[in-house]
Amino acid sequence: MPYIVSPISILVLISLLLQFCELYKQLDLRYCSLSACRFLCHQASTMIEWRLGLTVIKLGNRYRCSQMDMFADEVAKSIVGSHFARQGKSCNNAPKNIFRVLMTYNKQIQPIFPQLASLVVFQFISINEDSRDTLLFAIAGGSSMRTFTWNTCSNQTHHSRALFDWLFRCSVNLVSYKLQTPPLENGFELKYEYTIANAYVPHRSLVYLQISILNLNTLYILLHYLPQLKHLDVYISSIIDSINTTDQYLASKLNYPETLRVLNLRNLRIRGSDCSCLEQLMGKFTNTVEEFSLCLTHYCTDEVDVCFNGHRLATLCSRLPRLRSLHFAIHLQFIERRRTQTLTDFAQTFRTPFWLDGPLGRIQVCMTYDQVFNFVQMLSLPYTFSDNILFYTIDLIDVLFNNSEEEKERPNNLSIALRPL
């Protein structure tokens, strides 16, 4: 015998669902099952209570279904359906590319979630342009957006232009922008000629930027268009050639934010006889930077005298009068095997007054040398670069600290010596 639901029960269920929608301002699909994700994607994109009340969306889980595509498809269907409904037509026979046509030619499309303030995306598979543009412009294109986080999977840097277009054209009130690629992947690139041709204007509200980029040129351009930036966390994937004059020319013609307080260079790799490009970059913020973190790899061939060491870092920091906090990890790569005295020579560069009793107080530095791969590491303690590998192998033939008294008391056991790390 079929079960009959009374009209009163249906009204009660609808009322409960409306209350449910009203209570949930945040939609986190990252841990939903396939059926739950499909249901919530449809409800959020079609019910007016969700569309007007949603403030936070979180998508993406490598162990679940393709949530980004599923959510984007439901939003696209909702926009297409609303478009035909306003014209009194049915969308049943609409062409498959109708959403792309509407996005391209219809400038009246409004973001489907006008109150959305935060979008967090963990992308684990590639997406097409339709899904990307739906997420950027139909979902996150409103003036209420304040924080944007997008962690991409591999080989997604071809979306660079769309992601930067959204930043400088749609996110008028955005405060925080995080765009990252997986470790060891190429970062995103922005060219100055493209910004001129597309009439980019400076972003007046963004104060926090965490980003993976391809080269130093992209960093210069971003700084030029972000005059209110206060916190910069950047990963530069390409190796910078110290004799490259293109970066230096571009750097001289652009503007820089006068409000930058925190600078974290999470991955900076320089090849050549000097690190003048780093000194040139830091010279733009001599009167603003208060917290500085540097993870540097210097491919200095076998010219020990020109390697980046404690003297050069102390000179660099001495030009930052407002500096209050310093963390660094310096990796020097050599071609030929060095003598053991080399490590002692580097240790001496960190035993000057600046490091032992300078304006930042006492800074403890650990130095190691690997005899197989021929590299020297110099690390401030405690070690703070959690996303960078700290080499710790049995091939380390020596470990030194910059404090001479601790050197005398240091045990011969390497594992005990490295315990402070």
From TrEMBL:
Range of residues in the leader sequence: 1-23
Species of the source: Rotaria magnacalcarata
Record key words, sorted: Signal
Name of the molecule in the record: Uncharacterized protein
